[in-house]
Amino acid sequence: MLQLTKRTDYGLIALTHLAGHSGVRSVRSIADLYPIPRRLLAEVLKDLLHSHLVESHRGAQGGYTLARPPGEIMLSEIVEALEGAPSLTSCEGSHTENSCAVEAVCPIRSPIHVLRQGIWRMLEQTALSDLAGWPELARIPSFR
């Protein structure tokens, strides 16, 4: 089924952490709280920086902050920045002719496309603040 990549998982974790804390947070401080490889987290945050979802701050106390309030950052922006719009079937991501032998008569292509669009709309309507505001997160000491 639909599964986001580890990069997107780590990006969502980092952004949710930034949404729950004021001030600049370093890659090290985030990676020390969660079992995330620092190098991969740094790459993910650089991608989010290039997509204008985070801002970087240099210096000894440097790190990252959100570029906008968490209520203005939609999950679709995060997913798109880290992996593009996900597809549910192999034919959705394919742009070559005749890549699927049953494409012309496929009974699932249209329904699956509608489902993917619905999932994408949900991501477009869900803000980072929605993720960061879930009551379950309040039980984790770093989110208080």
Give an overview of the whole structure.
This protein has 144 residues and is mostly helical. The chain has a domain at 6-86 and 128-143: Orthogonal Bundle (Arc Repressor Mutant, subunit A). 48% of the residues lie in helices and 6% in strands. It has helices spanning 6-19, 27-33, 38-50, 75-83, 109-125, 128-132, 135-138; strands at 54-57, 63-66. It has a two-stranded antiparallel ribbon with strand order 1-2. A hairpin with a 5-residue loop joins strand 1 (54-57) and strand 2. Helix 1 (6-19) crosses helix 3 and helix 1 (6-19) crosses helix 4. The protein is elongated, with a radius of gyration of 18 Å.
The helical percent reads 40-55%
CATH superfamily membership of the domain at 6-86 and 128-143: Winged helix-like DNA-binding domain superfamily/Winged helix DNA-binding domain
SS class: mainly alpha
What CATH architecture of the domain at 6-86 and 128-143 would you give? Orthogonal Bundle
N-end to C-end Cα span: 33 Å
Multimeric status of the protein: single chain
State mean pLDDT (0 to 100 scale).
82
Return Rg in Å. Answer: 18 Å
- The geometry reads as elongated
Main sheet record: 2 strands, antiparallel
According to DSSP, the number of beta strands is 2
The CATH topology of the domain at 6-86 and 128-143 is Arc Repressor Mutant, subunit A
Q: In which order are the strands of the major sheet placed? A: 1-2
